[in-house]
Input
Amino acid sequence: MNEIVAAFIEYLAQTKNYSVHTATAYETDVRDFIKFYSNYTGGPIELTDIARADTVVFRAWLADCQRRGHSNKSMARGLSALRGFYRYLARYHNIKNSAIGLMSSPRVPRKLSKAIDIDDVHDMHDAIRQIDDRAPWIAARDWALVILMFGCGLRISEALSLKNADVRGRPDALRIVGKGNKERIVPILPVVLDAIDQYIRLRPFGTAPDDALFRSVRGLPMSPRMAEKVVEKLRHYLQLPDYVTPHALRHTFATAMLSGGADLRSLQELLGHASLSTTQLYTRVNLDQIQDIYMHSHPRADDE
Output
């Protein structure tokens, strides 16, 4: 079974273009199920056993996951991994299992991170200069990264995937490759380009067109964890709430766009959401803002 699972993960990465993070998570889930199923049957399992698994087995596995403290979100992802695994087996090993299609995923509340106050985003500029006062190029890099994620609504991985050639000549828009290898065009504001230009002027290395735009202190491409640490330092320095993260910068962009009159379809394209329902979550934020304004400003609010 180990070889088959390994081939499945390679299929996800190479054929389906899943991210390394997602493929690794799916591998963990599938191997967890196989381990449980082996204990459940009392011995090693083969493909024929996988084919015979029924809803009783799947429910028993979910119950065991819950007993071990797995969240509904984690268990829903686990079922998604198994469905993908069975689709792979049906396609490449002629293994059919109808029971997995009868399983309903645990209910997962859809939550949206809070948007950052715009004034706090502005304060980050001066804070970065204070934090990195001995390394001007690092300060310029950090601000360019922050204003890029906020100004264009990019994910960390999307921002860090940019190369020098992508911003050469101050383009009006960026070509972004997002989740599922889906490509989109995102307009870029002059203020963002100004920050990037300043960083490039000060950066001591990584100037080739195909080099990663954002570099670490040692000259290597920045990792997502490095980007997270940039915002963590700012959060602590400015004493901001825990929800201030790189992804919250993307949420702030989306909320600002919607509040400014952007329609949902346009916002969906800008964010690279596969489903409009994901984008519609931002309407809740907007309604909360409207309600807050009403409760604090309307003369009849106290009568409600």
